[in-house]
Design a protein that fits this description.
With 69 residues, the protein is of the alpha+beta class. The chain has two helices and four strands; from the N terminus they run E-H-E-E-H-E. It has one domain: Alpha-Beta Plaits (2-Layer Sandwich), CATH 3.30.70.20. A hairpin with a 5-residue loop joins strand 2 and strand 3. The structure holds iron/sulfur cluster (2 copies).
């Protein structure tokens, strides 16, 4: 896994439901041949929707340092 991506996905937890693919306003995600989500385009603007809506809690947002609280 690329540790630099904006969203880390726990492949063991992901069930391939596709919610993140549908919900991301920047269309960042796709489902791979193993039915796991992956970040195809890292255009993330850190809205947080994917991490909130993932039913498996498989997604972790990596906020860039300047916007961490
Ligand atoms: S919403 Fe979560 S469980 Fe569903 S495909 Fe995306 S990462 Fe996997
Ligand atoms: S935080 Fe928002 S913009 Fe970033 S990948 Fe998730 S849904 Fe897409």
């Amino acid at each position: 896994m690329n540790e630099q991506l904006s969203v880390e996905i726990d492949r063991d937890s992901c069930n391939g439901c596709g919610i993140c693919v549908d919900i991301c306003p920047l269309d960042c995600f796709r489902i791979d041949e193993d039915e796991k989500a992956f970040m195809k385009y890292d255009e993330c603007w850190y809205c947080g929707s994917c991490t909130l809506e993932c039913p498996q809690h498989a997604m972790t947002l990596r906020l860039p340092y300047p916007v961490r609280t």
